[in-house]
Amino acid sequence: MPVPDPTQAERARVAARIRACRRCPRLVAWREDGDRGLPVPGFGDPAATVFLLGLATAAPGNPTGRPFTANRSADFLVAALHRAGLADQPRSEHAGDGLRLSGAWMASAVRCPPPGHRPLAAERDACLQHLRDEWHALPHLRAVLALGAFAWDAALRAADVDPRPRFTHGARVATPDGPVLLASYHPSPQNTNTNLLTAAMFDTVLGRACAEGRYAPPTTSEEST
């Protein structure tokens, strides 16, 4: 008989609080005026050791209720997760596409889609408790990979790191009571199309996050023979 997961109910409560959140008047007005859906909780494996933290929920993916879905940043990120053995398929197209993560969880620092995809610092701060709550509801979490300077700042603030180191690709900060924090350039088309962030660069930093998380991809039957 499967052993009950004592944190399952807490993850459900966190997700419900995120979906019901109305802390930011500008974001509430933006999402409701354009029928852009509800705030988006994180998605992934409840046994995740690695947490991928993005900037803000993108408007195209928001109605799906899943982060990193139906946009080019998602295409880059999920393909990398698939190469690393963290995702069972290389695309994230819609909520019913069957995507499953193994050892990983993904979410955004700001859970609503902001106008122009530009969240405000106050909106980041309003969302910090949601981020902390998700971290606490993932009992095996060991590493957070922040995608871009905005997410890096959110991760440092959520972990109460002070002073906060400046963002650089590949940065690493160990926290005394929480996960190790790592930084990468965001996988936006602006960065990937200009080769500021290449697939090889991202594979390297994602590999470091997996090592910090002590995550090893499951072997297939062919690999184990």
Structure characterization notes:
The two termini are 28 Å apart. The protein has a 6-stranded mixed beta sheet, with helices on both faces. The longest helix is centred in the middle third of the chain and has 16 residues. It contains 7 helices and 6 strands, in the order H-H-E-E-H-E-H-E-H-E-E-H-H. With 225 residues, the protein is α/β, with parallel strands linked by helices.
User: Could you say which structural class the secondary elements and strand pairing correspond to?
Assistant: alpha/beta
The quaternary structure here is single chain
Number of helices: 7
Biggest sheet strand line-up = 1-3-2-4-6-5
Strand content: 5-15%
Q: How many distinct beta strands?
A: 6
And the CATH topology? Uracil-DNA Glycosylase, subunit E
Main sheet, how many strands, which sense, barrel? 6 strands, mixed
Distance between the termini: 28 Å
Average pLDDT for all residues: 91
Organism: Pseudonocardia abyssalis
Domain Uracil-DNA glycosylase-like: 41-206
Protein name: Uracil-DNA glycosylase
Keywords: DNA damage, DNA repair, Hydrolase
